[in-house]
Amino acid sequence: MSPTYDVIVIGLGGMGSAAAHHLSARGARVLGLERYGPVHRRGSSHGGSRITRQSYFEDPAYVPLLLRAYELYETLERDTGRDIATLCGGLMAGRPDSRTVAGSLLSARTWDLPHEILDAKEIRRRFPTLTPEDDEVALHETRAGFLRPENTVAAHLQLATRAGADLHFEEPLLRWEPYRDGVRVHTAEDTYTAGQLVVCPGAWAPRLLADLGVPFGIERQVMYWFQPDGGTGPFRPDNHPIWIWETADGVQSYGFPALDGPDQGVKVAFFRKGTVCTPDTIERTVHEHEVAAMGSHVARHAPALPGRFLKAATCMYSNTPDEHFVIARHPAHPASVTVACGFSGHGFKFVPVVGEILADLALTGTTAHPIELFDPHRLSTIHAPGVRP
Ligand SMILES: Cc1cc2nc3c(=O)[nH]c(=O)nc-3n(C[C@H](O)[C@H](O)[C@H](O)COP(=O)(O)OP(=O)(O)OC[C@H]3O[C@@H](n4cnc5c(N)ncnc54)[C@H](O)[C@@H]3O)c2cc1C
């Protein structure tokens, strides 16, 4: 007889580990299946740091979710004793009409979030490592900062295990099908049944969720660590913010303070500008010309960088055409399957609230959180019978 669960969670990366925690904390019998080991580096939730911020230039609709995510991150730190969130402040910089500045300001004003607008002179005075052009400004937000993705995933896995979830690593889902009122799931090891399936496949969405009809674009992204000229002293997180900088050509890049001590350097990266890939074909080698391009770009607003190149690592974005997430009941299986995918390079700061939403959807069929923006119907080229076009 196959083992039976209330909910099976596919993928135990950022979103799936949070879902496993929230589901099992509510008393559900949970099985989690993960293709690789715990906290691995082959998906989208590794690399030591992720930006978090509230004045969200992508859309003000994200702000209530962020406010809840902040609360849940605090609880997660308290419940596990792990170092997860550091609110060192953040600068969203560029020309006043850039998406980064104007969009952040719109969210700050819409939701009455504490913020300041700094002109170029004030940016240089307060943050001497940064050298804006005269016509550049920044929205400064003290509640921005960085999260540690590996500690976040480990914390959620730890809490899920503590609450009795069965988490199976190195055991990929091969296929699933509707079974009685729920689902039946096959791996190389066994067959399992459950009332509900929650699919959090990250960059494997084109393979696992092709029937959503969403044209995902999987993108290779590179993170770079540089040792600044003069050392990391001025970049310490107690006196340096995270930053997102949009240049006049619309290119966004971002950086972190030196969060892991004097030898680990400062991490910077382009936001977007990646190359198309799949989880199987992604080029993991980072080439000299890429390091040189990042170095010369960041030098324009942070002249102590690039300094000395230390290392680089690759990661994948799972983009939707409008760069908004997909979080919903599966349109073709609305009674038994919930999906969370297409996080488009900005999902990590939402991880715990996505876990909460997925638990709501799987256990009650609905959520009080505002997730209208994430409805897959807006993007799908497939329409299930009876589903609105
Ligand atoms: C370089 C980079 C920088 C980023 N910076 C930020 C940032 O600053 N701020 C921010 O908020 N977000 C950021 N993001 C985005 C954020 O990290 C992602 O949105 C988030 O990590 C996605 O989580 P996920 O659970 O969807 O994917 P993952 O964490 O990759 O999890 C998916 C999991 O599914 C597993 N899986 C796949 N197929 C199967 C199968 N068949 N069976 C079982 N398991 C399977 C995979 O092994 C994987 O573990 C960044 C992403 C990258 C790559």
UniProtKB/TrEMBL annotation:
- Which catalysed reactions does the entry list for this protein? sarcosine + O2 + H2O = formaldehyde + glycine + H2O2
Q: Which Pfam families match?
A: DAO
Q: Which residues carry this modification: S-8alpha-FAD cysteine?
A: C315
The record's free-text note on cofactor binding: Binds 1 FAD per subunit.
Entry GO CC? cytoplasm
The record's listing under PROSITE patterns reads: 3_HYDROXYISOBUT_DH (PS00895)
EC number in record: 1.5.3.1
Subcellular localization, as worded in the UniProt entry: Cytoplasm
Write out the entry's keywords from A to Z: Cytoplasm, FAD, Flavoprotein, Oxidoreductase
Coiled-coil segments on the chain, per record: none
Checking InterPro entries in the record gives: 3-OH-isobutyrate_DH-rel_CS (IPR002204), FAD-dep_OxRdtase (IPR006076), FAD/NAD-bd_sf (IPR036188), MTOX (IPR045170), SoxA_mon (IPR006281)
Domain of life (superkingdom): Bacteria
Q: Name one GO molecular function term.
A: flavin adenine dinucleotide binding
Cofactor(s) for this UniProt protein: FAD
Q: Outline the extent of the FAD dependent oxidoreductase domain.
A: 6-361
Which SUPFAM superfamilies does the entry mention? FAD-linked reductases, C-terminal domain, FAD/NAD(P)-binding domain
Q: So what does this one do?
A: Catalyzes the oxidative demethylation of sarcosine.
Q: Which named protein is this? A: Monomeric sarcosine oxidase
